[in-house]
Every structure is written in structure tokens, then in C-alpha cells.
Request: fold
Amino acid sequence: MTEDFSPAPASIIIPAVGGLLFAGVVVGFVCHVPSPYSLSSICLIGSTGVYVALSMTAGSLAVWFIHAIFREHITVALRPLLWCIACSAAWMPLWCLLLKENSIWSAFIPSLIIASPARFLKKQSYGTKHQGAGDFDQANTQQLFQALESSSLFRSMIPAVLASVAFQAALGAFALDHSVMAALLFAVCTTVVVWSYPLRLRVQSGSRARESRSERDPVFIPFFAIFLTAIALTPFLRDVSVAGRFHSLLEANPKADRKSIRDGRLSLHSPSNSYSGVILLAPPKVHQKLVSTPPMKHPKLMGRFIKPVIIPFDGAYWYFKHPDPRPEPDARVVRGNPTKENVRSTDWIPISMEAHQYLGASLNTDCCTEIRVAIQNADNRSGTISLEVLLKDTGAIRTPAQSLGSVVIPSSEARRIAINRPPVNEVLAFPIPAKVSERRFDEITVLIKPAKERSLAGPQVAIQEFVLVP
Reply:
């Protein structure tokens, strides 16, 4: 005679909640949204795999640790519980990235996270009661011909009504842009549907092996999670055309100008729908005339400058917020000096700052060995500031900008900066590596990147001039 035993729901809920919370904390610290057009295809695939594997490992370790501490109280089998929480935690990186990207699709991910634990809880709570159903003998065969008690119509309709109400309320919250409430209601709807869906119990001989195999049936879940997480990172690919299309798909307001997407100049609404950005124009300066280097038979002998060429900066500073790659068309345009301006974010989303200098002529990278950037740092807030120089050919839309690397501003590395410290003039050198030879550029872009703890305000750093060193 088989004992009618089913594990207490708390023995499943407690390790499940602990595992998912720990996985969420780990993912929140590790997963970060990359800079626009900064990911290669290999880097995207590698980052996605690492994020999902790390989340699954963190969730499984937390469940194992809780199971080891409360071994006497947790009666459920450890191996299927570990796999269940690992599959559920596989969706955590996708949810984290979509939340940080302020995507509307983040409202649907909690349903995927809750589905596996809900199914496992029901299977363990009800499946054990029928564990001896496979031992048919002459005595219990008579139960096959017994009439089942009919349940009341009202009781049978409760799950369907509850799921319908939760689903419709979730759609309403989703339409009104209340993502958190929509996510909660979608999760409730999923839980009710999973719990009310009838289980098909295995009663054949050798059922224990089949049940063990059925616990591993959703082996496709981690791979599907990796696939969707890769899609969430696709807007940050270096391929402008692909990144633009996926950016508009995942954006909170997907209406975008298709022509601007093809040009790599997205004009989407900012995540808060209230920040269009700022364009700060530097005062005009007299430029040394640049002569475009035409194709020659001996570019190594004739392509270089004879003496250093100085290019005073009179371009524009861009201030915008992620995930926008540039300020909005209705951004405020003013003329001024970034060392005297205080541009701040309107919420918790960091400010991105870029300086763009159009050269007026297309040059070959063989014209010089390095580019020196003269700057003035008037920022007295603690936290490092680094500069990254990009060389761009505006005529080649599909060709990504060539990075010359990042350099930390030495004056920003001080742990304590006096409030009345005068502006510091510095020169940073960016060598042009040999691998970028025979590349052309007509625009120099400088990414001004502050430390994370001080990224809610634009750095008070001004570009003075560029020096092309032969």
C-alpha cells in the first residue's frame, strides 16, 4: 500500500524564491547595457552565453545551499528542483537587460520566469499522490469503473475567470505604460493557467524512469533564453542597419524615421519621454586648410603630413541619454563652453556626452602616426573621466567608426579635488595602430565617459584642439 504523501509547498517555494532572488542580484551586478554600436557578433554571442550560464549557476548554487541548510524540512528531490530553478533563472539576464533598456517587452518576462516553478510545484504536490497508480492489481482495478464526483460549475470556472481578469487587466496596464503592474498581472495569469492545467501522469511500468526524464524535458529553455537575450543585445551591434532595426523593435516607442535608421541616425523618443538632449555648439575658430589625400601610387611615401597639423575644435557637444545614440531632432541647441555648463539627467538614467568635429576633407589614416587631443578639465567632482577617440567616414554608412582606444584624464584620477581648483589643461595622445592603415575618415568623435557614480551629470571637459602628428 502506497503512502499518500506530498511535499509541503514551502519546501519548494522557499528554495525557489531564494534561488531566483540570488540569481537576480548577481545578474543585476553583472549584466550591463553596452554603448551604442560597440558589440561585435562574437562579443554578442559570448556575452549572452556568459550571462545566461552565470544566472543559471547562481540560482542553482542558492538552491543547493538552502537545501543543505534545511535538509530535514525540504523533502523534495534536489536534482529536479535544481534544474527547474536553473531553467527559470535563465530568463533573468533577458529581463535585466530589457529593464535597463526601458523596453516594453520587459513586462512579459516574469511570466516565463514563474512558469517552471509553478509547473514543478504542481507536479510535486499532486504527482506524488498517484505514485502508486502504476501498480494495477485486481483490487484497485475496480476503481476504473467508479463514477467520479462532479464538481460545482462555479468552482470549475474560478481559475478561468481569474486568469481572464488578470490577463485583461495586464493588457490594460501594458497599454497605459505601467510595465511593473503589467508584469505582475501577466505572472499571476501564467500561474493560474499552469496550476489549473491538468497533468498527464505516467502509469506504465518503469514510470519512475519516465518521470525522471520528464523533469528534464524543457532542456530547450536555456537555449531559447540565450536566443532572446542575444536579440536584446542586437541593438548595440556595430552593424548600423541591423542595430537600428532592432533598436526600434525593442524601444518603448518604436515609431522611428526609417530613413534616419538607414543613415545610422536614430531619432527615437528617450526612455523617459521627457528628455530630448542638448547640443552645445563651440565658438567658431580659424582652421588650417586641410588637403584631402588623393589616391597615389606610393601612399607610404607621399601620404603623410610633413609637419603637425593643428585642428582647433569648433564642432558640437552632444548630450543625450541611453539608449538614444544621439540627441532628438527637437533637442535644445545652444552655443557655449562645457566647462561652464551644468547639464544633468532628469532621472536615474546616465548622461552620454560626445564631441564631434567635422574636418571638411577626407583623410587617410596613413597621414599621421597619432592624434593628440588638447583638453581643459574644469570638473571638480570625484570620479575618473576617460576619453575615447573614434575616426569616422561619414560617406561610408555601413563602415563602423574606428576606435583609437580610451585614455583616462590624469587630473580626474585624484581622490580629493578642491572645489576651487582652476581648470587643468592637458594633452592626451592616441596612437593610430598599423591595423587601421588605408582607412579614410572625415570626422573625429570624442566620447567623454565619466565614472558610473558620477554619470548623471555631463563632465565639464572641453576639447581645445586636435594635433595630427606625422
